[in-house]
């Protein structure tokens, strides 16, 4: 059975919308998803770099994130034909461990927690495919990288791109 | 550069001594490491199965574990010749995430946290070697499994065995 590793943030969970909403509210800003085309929020407001990162480091930030549309249904379907693992670079934000785990147990309860990976460098993952929004996670990955669209990766052209979970289904179950 | 993945519990950290000491104290028992030859504590006292596991689930249990002798020095040396990752099956005990992370940052501060992996099924690890005390973690692992001696694995004969960190040095740096 082939194995698919799936990133968490901005692929099945949506930290970006919450991050942006909290940032706009706290700093009286009005930045939209559209303003983030090709860049990170820290690049749009470099003078607030630390403040922007601090929002993500709040222990419950990741606990109540929205689910990316159709990810549950499609992953449930994929699990019948592939081994599915969820791999998140949680080592960058150790305060997020518990929230991320609880979020996964709540929304992806059909997956076994033995298939969750909190890592840093994703080149350690042994899988046939990695669905991720960060092209840097494909460096050193031995399988095929599949880029999940996000505002800041819109200009990246080196990988197969999927714009939503229906396109993921298309790719794997066509 | 070849890559070595190293298990945490009973390979670089010593939960067993603390677990046994706490158990003996709380339940007025006198079980020794010697009594655990070829078996787990839960097999020696099956009537206290849940109580034994509950000790491990206490959130700070893993925070102050002793370091397995010579592991720091040898891993520091190995890092000069190999890529070293620490891979622990933390998904079995989600309450341990923070303590395990802090313990690693304290005692193995020379390793980058990008090289820490909290996982379940270790067949997801892509590495040339895995040093582990649980033979089941070698199932599906594509590299070479190296069994680190522990009382309950004393009768296992299917893998290269190392009895201590000097023997690990011997194996990798001879």
UniProtKB/TrEMBL annotation, chains A, B:
GO BP annotations listed: pyrimidine deoxyribonucleotide catabolic process
The family this protein is said to belong to: Belongs to the 5'(3')-deoxyribonucleotidase family.
Active site, UniProt feature: 7, 9
A Pfam cross-reference name: NT5C
Stated name of the protein: 5'(3')-deoxyribonucleotidase
InterPro entries to which the protein is assigned, alphabetical: 5'(3')-deoxyribonucleotidase (IPR010708), HAD-like_sf (IPR036412), HAD_sf (IPR023214)
Database matches in SUPFAM superfamilies: HAD-like (SSF56784)
A single MF term (Gene Ontology): 5'-nucleotidase activity
Organism domain of life: Bacteria
PANTHER family reported for this sequence: 5'(3')-DEOXYRIBONUCLEOTIDASE
């Amino acid at each position: 059975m082939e194995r698919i590793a799936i990133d968490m943030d901005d692929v099945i969970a949506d930290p970006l919308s919450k991050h942006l909403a909290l940032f706009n509210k706290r700093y009286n800003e009005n930045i939209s998803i559209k303003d983030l085309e090709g860049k990170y929020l820290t690049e749009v407001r470099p003078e607030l770099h630390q403040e922007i990162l601090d929002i993500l480091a709040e222990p419950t930030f990741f606990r109540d994130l929205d689910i990316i549309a159709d990810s549950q249904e499609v992953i449930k379907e994929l699990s019948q034909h592939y081994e599915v693992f969820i791999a998140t670079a949680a080592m960058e934000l150790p305060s997020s461990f518990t929230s991320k785990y609880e979020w996964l147990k709540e929304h992806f309860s059909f997956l076994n927690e033995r298939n969750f990976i909190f890592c840093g460098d994703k080149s350690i993952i042994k899988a046939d495919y990695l669905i991720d929004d960060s092209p840097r996670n494909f460096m050193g990955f031995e399988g095929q990288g599949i880029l999940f669209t996000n505002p800041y990766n819109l200009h990246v052209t080196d990988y197969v791109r999927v714009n939503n979970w229906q396109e993921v289904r298309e790719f794997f179950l066509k």
